[in-house]
Design a protein that fits this description.
Elements (H helix, E strand, L loop, with lengths): L6 E10 L2 E10 L2 E7 L2 E8 L4 H11 L9 E6 L12 E6 L4 H13 L9 H9 L9 E2 H13 L2 H6 L3 E7 L4 E7 L2 H14 L8 E5 L5 H10 L3 E4 L5 H10 L2 E4 L7 E4 L4 E2 L14
Parallel strand pairs: 3-6, 7-14, 10-11, 11-12
Antiparallel strand pairs: 1-2, 3-4, 5-6, 8-9, 8-10, 12-13
Helix pairs in contact: 1-6, 6-7, 7-8
């Protein structure tokens, strides 16, 4: 099978300075991926083709279906598809019998959840019951966090061509890149990065930072918790439920990460700031 293109050519009309011209451009590829486990479809997600096996493995980890690489016996693209549209867009996963109980539980959960993931504050207790809080002492410096967006941007090769992809990167506490992946869906980018490290036997990532190019949703924090990642940083805003989960799970949650500063919504003990920095009282508004 030929490797898929993450960016595909497109002829566009460009209006600029009062003139209309036609030119060739590159746009982000988007196609559905069906994940079948034990002969049953468990998920269909819109993704950017590429790193499909990592995406499937990462999804299995973050859904709590597998916890060790050896629980995945085989993972491959389906060779007998029903249509040309399915070719390259169906991944078959075979797991060990040990993962069967988790698989049955996941089937029940997926049948009752919406396509965007589980929602509501009650789901936090469900997640905590499945993945224990992170209690290790892992911490990083403010200086390291400030450098992550630029390091992640350098790893976004397809974004440079299209401007239309999310990115997720897993870094060491010192800011060294362990894995970075791009996808049209930010959740998929996270699953791909986690899946890559899972297949290398690197989980749990108890001394790592997850940095995402978009906002930090509940699902992003949940995926970090499943992988044992103690620090999550986003260049955009977190949601209220993401903050609630991060606080209950022992995860440091950083938002609006820019070159000059960031907001810290939970886990102050995991971020070292310069000794001269002092906290000030909140400013009044109105």
């Amino acid at each position: 099978m030929e490797p898929p293109e993450e960016a595909v050519p497109a002829t566009i009309a460009r209006y600029e300075n009062g003139e209309l011209s036609r030119r060739e451009d590159r746009v982000t590829a988007e196609e559905p991926l069906e994940i079948r486990v034990g002969g049953q479809t468990l998920a269909v997600t819109m993704r950017t083709p590429g790193h499909d096996h990592e995406l499937a493995a990462g999804w299995l980890v973050t859904e709590g279906i597998v916890t060790r690489p050896e629980e995945i016996v085989r993972i491959e693209h389906c060779r007998e598809t029903r249509s040309a549209e399915e070719e390259g867009n169906v991944v078959l996963v075979r797991t060990t019998a040990q993962a069967g109980a988790h698989l049955d539980r996941a089937r029940r959960l997926l049948l009752t959840s919406s396509s965007c993931g589980i929602c509501g504050k009650g789901s936090i207790e469900s997640i905590r019951g499945q993945f224990p809080p992170i209690t290790g002492p892992a911490a990083t410096s403010a200086e390291t966090l400030l450098g992550l967006p630029q390091r992640l941007r350098r790893a976004q090769t397809t974004f440079g061509q299209t401007g239309g992809l999310h990115a997720a990167g897993v870094f060491t506490l010192e800011g060294d890149l362990l894995a970075a992946r791009e996808d049209v869906g930010r959740h998929n980018a996270v699953d791909k990065a986690i899946g890559a490290l899972f297949r290398e036997g690197r989980l749990p990532l108890s001394e790592a930072i997850l940095c995402v190019s978009g906002r930090a949703s509940f699902e992003i924090v949940q995926k970090a918790l499943a992988a044992g990642i103690p620090i999550v940083a986003a260049v955009s805003a977190p949601s209220s439920l993401a903050i609630d989960l991060a606080r209950s799970a022992g995860i440091a949650l950083v938002g609006f990460l820019r070159e000059r500063g960031f907001n810290l919504y939970s886990g102050e003990n995991r971020v070292r700031v310069p000794s001269g920095a002092t906290a000030t009282a909140p400013r009044a508004t109105g």
